[in-house]
Amino acid sequence: MSSIFTKIVNGEIPSYKIAEDDRFYAFLDINPLAVGHTLVIPKKEVDYILDMDDDLHADLWNFAKKVGKAVEKVVPCKRIGITVIGLEVPHTHIHIIPINTIYDMDFNQPKLKLAAPEFEQLVINITKAWKELGFGE
Ligand code: 5GP
């Protein structure tokens, strides 16, 4: 059975898409720890990041770096926190999280509840930043 993230890539489940190429897909986390919390995934379904093919793994991180830069351009923060957990969804994903303190990376804290227009505005702003940074259409 396909993972929930494969269904997102295939458009069977909607997502707030930030960026995509032939191998990677970035979209807003639906239960964000912070405004702009984004997930970056390989389209190829690999559960555990350490099982990834070396080249795909390296390129995933390079793609995630660009996503981080685009998010950082839009969401005021001290830094972008980046982490991999993967205990909930068995499809490799990198969390890109705007942070100001270490506590902003605490996954035990309550998640934000954003309304659809807030997600939509983030998509507009971050995809604009993506283009301005020269990362593509
Ligand atoms: P992890 O597997 O790293 O523990 O966390 C999975 C992440 O995926 C969580 O932050 C959760 O909010 C996010 N997530 C789970 N299901 C969906 C979904 O259907 N859509 C989106 N956009 N995010 C999801």
Task: Set out the fold topology.
Layout: H1 4-9, E1 17-20, E2 24-28, E3 38-42, H2 54-74, E4 79-83, E5 94-99, H3 116-132
Antiparallel strand pairs: 1-2, 2-3, 3-5, 4-5
Helix pairs in contact: 2-3
Guanosine-5'-monophosphate binds next to strand 2.
Short descriptors:
137 residues, alpha+beta, five-stranded antiparallel sheet, 5 strands, binds guanosine-5'-monophosphate
Tell me about this structure.
The protein is an alpha+beta fold and 137 residues long. The protein is built from three helices and five strands. Strand 1 and strand 2 (24-28) form a beta hairpin. Helix 2 packs across helix 3. The protein is globular. It starts with a helix and ends in a 5-residue tail after the last helix. The relative contact order is 0.21. The site of guanosine-5'-monophosphate has 15 residues, from strand 2.
